[in-house]
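Predict the 3D structure for this chain.
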Amino acid sequence: MIFVTDAAGATALDTAAIAAGTPSRALMQRAGAAAATEIGLRLSDRLAAGVAVFTGSGNNGGDGWVVARALHAAGVHVRVIEIAEPRTDDARAERALAIADGVTHGMDATHGANATEAVIVDALLGTGLSASEPLRGAIGDAVRVLHAHRARGATIVSIDIPSGLDASSGRDAGAVQCALTLTFGSVKRGQLMARGLCGQIVALDIGLAATASHGRHVLATPAWFAETVPPIAADAHKGTRGKVAILGGADGMGGAVALAARGALRSGAGMVKCIVANGSLAMIRERDDAVLTGAWPECDAEFVDTAAWGGG
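Done. Predicted structure below.
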């Protein structure tokens, strides 16, 4: 099951895991190690040309240091380009470990503009950003450099979220456009609203789901449907598979209702009834012979097991 959260929800998942006994640094190490493994699996053909990891000052930068150390241990030529020094204890500790293990690193006055590596890891900003204004300063300069690396053909991988993207709203403050986003514990709502910036989104399990409370939003993937939707019994018929009423469809605007009806039938509903304006009845009837119809203000409440309304 893949959770979908906003920025506050992502923080709540971390907080719950820490309260349950997992140290914050252990979460960072799990996140970075999982991301490094995924990079190795998905981009193995590009690793020979090296990896440059751009790190910021927060825990997202700390994740980047873990990624760099893990790739270095696997024999990949990796270099950390420090855009800002770590300001959290966990990030400082992971930086020290990576340097002790021999990871090449350093501040760069050009903000990494001269990097030639084939894979660029964006570990500048995490989910705490509120994209109320464009990125400025060294981080803004570094993000513009990442845009240039993408233009030259480098593969950009963002850790948790593309830097400059608001995890809650999907607002873009000049965000990195990446080929791959490796996110932790949950897919962020802002990522779903800005898929063009995120590339392929991969949610990595770092042990957060075990402490998550019930009732959170989940991503409806094929795997989720397979686990959640009960199979249709061999002796089932339309009277045993549930009845759906769909209300909407003002005159000339019945298309959304027709599409919803098709989806309800495809999902296994036994009977589907569209209750629309008189001017949309003919179109609904022409679309699908299996759909029942009715006109406003008909309610037919006794028919309904599940109702949807608002389309059109």
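Residues 3-223 form a domain with the Rossmann fold fold (CATH 3.40.50.10260).
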